[in-house]
Amino acid sequence: MAEPKRANPLLAIDLGGTKIATALVSWEGHILCQENIPTLAEEGVQAVVGRLLAALDRVMGKASVPLSSLTSVAIAAAGAIDIEKGIVTSSPNLPGWQDVPLKDMIQTAVGLETFLINDASAAALGEHRFGAGRGVNNLIYVTVSTGIGGGIILDGKLYNGVSGSAGEVGHMTIDAHGPRCNCGNIGCLELLASGKAVAREAQRLIAQGSRTRIMELAEGELENITAITVATAARQGDALASAIISRAATYLGIGIVNLVNIFNPEMIIIGGGLARMGDLLLIPVRKAVAERAFQLPAQRVSIVPSQLGENAGLLGAVAFAQSLSKSL
To answer: Partner of 315 for a Cys bridge, out of 30, 126, 258, 272, CB 3.0 to 4.6 A?
Structure first.
């Protein structure tokens, strides 16, 4: 295969449980045009893929770029990915996505070489190449959003594991007697520390009669409560909201302690929607690591927020496509 022209942009897709981001991205990692739409995953695979393709068309139309000038399509998707076959094998946050050949579906529809990677692994690559992890050879990216995922960079390279599914940190067991996760396991970190977990705990406690400003911010409707609603109330001094955030952050910290002890990374990057909480999240996480991890790795690791924010997955998918294009 000929080396792609470095001036040619790529189409990038970040397919998550609640949002699909599509963008035209330069080879150097600059987002030229972007569109975000809701995933509406409950409508099924074909409906989601149809909206995704329509969003790609709109992005290209806005940028006035012909398909023939593009290099490839790079996809970051939530769930367990078979990288070699380009299949979403399962996804707790995309109901019904079992053995979906997403790479071939997009490649056939668009007519461009297509690459598929797990969204959190992509974000790790994005931060390593373009963001907070530049120059760091050993790092772990943890995304805390609708769910929790992770990506691992070892000796400067993405670690995929035998089947390409390494980094599913959200599904490590934290509470052996905890609730059952969508993945089928019990007591997963994702159930205890994700955005969904924060909102669900707030709804549960309020339904039991707890008094809090959260309901005022949610306009009196339980279903309007999100993790950001809870975080806003916590910043305003609401005791219940502060306790909920502290509990979730402590569970997240325990999960990160496991990563620190096992991998001894130089850096752990926290991304995803909950990373916008800043110190509300990071201070309890750092405290848990300082108290629970082995002393030397705890002293050596830096725990920092994402630099790329919501675009980490998009840019990481681009970095992944570039790495494979250069190796073919």
So the answer is: 126
Tokens 């056939």 label which residue? 108
For residues 163 and 140, give the distance between their C-alpha atoms in angstroms, rounded to a whole number: 19
Decide: helix, strand or coil at residue 282. Answer: helix
How distant, in Å, are the alpha carbons of 152, 229, 254 from that of 259? 10, 29, 9
CATH 3.30.420.40 domain residues, the chain: 10-119+311-327, 132-306
* pLDDT tens profile 202-242: 999 999 999 999 999 999 999 999 999 999 999 999 999 99
Q: Residue 328's CB: how many other CB atoms inside 10 A? A: 9
pLDDT tens column, 270-321: 999 899 999 999 999 999 999 999 999 999 999 999 999 999 999 999 999 9
d(CA 99, CA 101): 6
pTM, two decimals, is: 0.89
3-state secondary structure of 76: strand
Task: Please answer whether residues 188 and 174 qualify as being in contact, where contact means their C-beta atoms are separated by less than 8 angstroms.
Answer: yes
C-alpha distances in Å from residue 40, one per residue of 95, 196, 229, 241, 283: 10, 16, 21, 28, 34
Report yes or no: 9 and 2 within 8 Å, Cβ to Cβ: no
Domain 10-119+311-327 CATH superfamily: ATPase, nucleotide binding domain (3.30.420.40)
* Closest C-alpha among 231, 154, 170, 175 to residue 199: 231
**Nearest-angstrom CA–CA distance, 14 and 173:** 27
The total number of residues written for the chain in this structure:
328
- 132-306 in CATH: which number? 3.30.420.40
* Chain-centre distance for alpha carbon 104: 23
As a whole number of angstroms, the distance between CA 246 and CA 264 comes to: 25
Say how many C-beta atoms besides its own lie within 10 A of residue 166's C-beta.
17
Joined together, the tokens standing for residue 320 give 């992944």
